Amino acid sequence: MASRFTTFSLSEDAAEAQQREHSPSPGRPRPDISDLTARLRFVPHEGQIWLDDQRVVLLNLATLITLRRELVETVGPRKARDILFRMGHAAGAREALLASKVRIDQPQIDAFLVGPQLHAMRGEVYVEPTVIEADIESGRYYSELIWRNSAEAECHLSCFGGSSQPVCWMEIGYASGYTSTVMQRPIEFREIECVACGDSNCRIVGRPAEAWPLNSEAVISRVDLHSSAAKAVVRGLADTPDGVVGASPGFLGAWYLLKRVAPMDTTVLLQGETGVGKEVFARALHEASPRAGKPLFSVNCAAIPESLIDAELFGVERGAYTGANQPRPGWFEAADGSTLFLDEIGTLSMVAQAKLLRVIQEGRFNRVGGTTTRKVDVRLVCATNLDLEAEVEQQRFRLDLLHRLNVFPILIPPLRNRLDDIPPLIQMFLDRFNRKTGRNISGFTVSAVDALLLYEFPGNVRELENMIERAAILTPDHEPIDTLHLFRGANHLRKTFLTPTANGTLAERQVGEQDSDKIGEICARLSLPQMEALAIREALAACNGNVSEAARRLGLTRSKLRYRLRGDGEPGE
User: Fold this and answer.
1) Is the predicted pLDDT of residue 499 greater than 50, yes or no?
2) Is the same domain home to 75 and 138?
3) To bridge 147 with a disulfide, which of 202, 274, 552, 565 should be the other Cys (CB 3.0-4.6 Å)?
């Protein structure tokens, strides 16, 4: 966010503000919201609605009225206020990430107004900014905003008939979360006037949290605003160590389980498809455990030949077999007092499984060729992309071992079910590439991000990382990664969706339509030989270098394609 916003301001004199009080439209022309409505996608055949990269739902006002009444009557007004504030804070912080992607070539104040306009587009309140003054480098921020048609004030009036205190708790949370994320520091909004208190409109003021007095009852406590959880929301991501990135419900659920079990010595089984990040989770679990002072030991069971698995895991005594001239410890001895990560645990042989079961049950084992029983203290973390229950049914995995490993399972969902994770992941991978190579790729185009959000990712996070690296190599310095740099023969795009049109109706779109015009523009700038060379490169990439298959796709003979690859021109007929 730091590179997106620096200083922005919007202010009006008192006369303009007073005149505008009687008009539904603000004194300053608002940016058009078509760029925001275009990011709203309806997928009714899958029961989903998407706003950019986050799934959203439609709720009628009666639902919110019922929720507010139940909260206030069950937990009391103060606790209900805090809960609704946090709900709004999380929504605002998440939608601030969208502001960093749109209106790149427009004034910064127009980009900042994405939040107020999304607030209105969600049907919650119409925001009229009176004053906005901000400087991210110095941390200075001050704003005054008028709220018209507050849905939350209407809810409270419907529930309780009025209030002696402002009641737009969730909307205040949204404004605080959104602005805190943009400003990269806690910004606190307070409602000075409220329709539920008898005022004509709601009015809010925003300042840095420390600029407000401590004894106010108007907002959530100062301690809550400065908690680690609140700071995590300000970043728009989970409170995770470097290299572990995620914001989706699936990721956050798995991360919550990991944090709960990390301080224990409990055996953990990480489950998920290839490439979802099981080893990243294992490393994070170890670093959050009391054993973090020692290194994590990782073993890929699938990479070890079956004849050597016992020796690798449990060690070898001298003379155990031909070539064993020296005693050698195995991975369990090496990991004594630390954590041992066994990846692809489902590939172990039945004999190795039996020995592993003994170590888990008793903490004891024998080296290959030895009679001395050795005791170790190892925290075991295992991972698999197989359905171990199905493997048990096929008699390829021991049921008693499964029971021992399955003490605390954590399922890491595939990336296609974690769309909220894609924007922070691609930014992390691009930043890593720029640091490693000294390049300066400026970011991603809107169409590139949209295309990534519609891709199925059969290879999950690992595939995404490879895609970003390949695209960054193809992209010139100081330019953003575009769709053409990302997809080379990929064929795992999602289904059609509905999106609002300019006249407010819904139209069905196929994935890729938004890029057809851009592809045409690029092709129009190329000469015929350049277009031919581009087509050949793309065909070869899609066929993994298979010249015969590429020639068939291009409608050429193998010899003609060979001529073109050598640059010798067209062969004679």
Assistant:
1) yes
2) yes
3) 202
Q: Are residues 269 and 190 in the same domain?
A: no
Q: What does the alpha-carbon distance between residue 372 and residue 374 come to, in Å, rounded to a whole number?
A: 6
What band does 219 get if pLDDT is binned at 50, 70 and 90? very low
The single residue listed with the structure tokens 């301690």 is: 223
Reduce the DSSP state of residue 160 to 3 states and report it.
helix
Please write the tens of the pLDDT for every residue from 119-160.
899 899 999 999 999 888 788 899 999 999 999 999 999 999
Q: Specify burial of residue 3 (Cβ count, 10 A radius: 0-12, 13-18, 19+).
A: exposed
209 and 272: one domain?
Answer: no
Question: Which residue blocks in 410-544 are alpha helix, DSSP H?
Answer: 422-437, 446-453, 460-474, 483-486, 513-524, 528-542
Q: Are 376 and 336 in contact (CB under 8 A)?
A: yes
Helix axes 169-183, 77-99, angle to 10 degrees: 40
Q: What was the pLDDT predicted at 235?
A: 44
Structure tokens of 30? 């608002």
Range of the domain at 126: 7-234
Residue 174 is assigned to a structural domain of this protein: yes
112 and 214 belong to one structural domain: yes
Residues 273 and 229 in one domain: no
**Residues 472-499, mean pLDDT to the nearest whole number:** 74
Which of 184, 203, 234 is the C-terminal boundary of a domain? Answer: 234
Tens-place pLDDT, residues 71-104 = 999 999 999 999 999 999 988 988 887 777 777 6
Of 106-110, 252-256, 462-466, 495-499, give the range with the top mean pLDDT: 462-466
Q: Helix, strand, coil proportions of the chain in percent (round to 5)?
A: 45, 15, 35
Q: Is residue 177 within 8 Å of residue 231, measured between CB atoms?
A: no
In a domain, 502, yes or no: no
More confident residue, 290 or 482: 290
Gap between the Cα atoms of 335 and 341, Å rounded: 9
Distance between CA atoms of 279 and 293, rounded to whole angstroms? 18
Tell me, yes or no, whether 437 lies in a domain: no
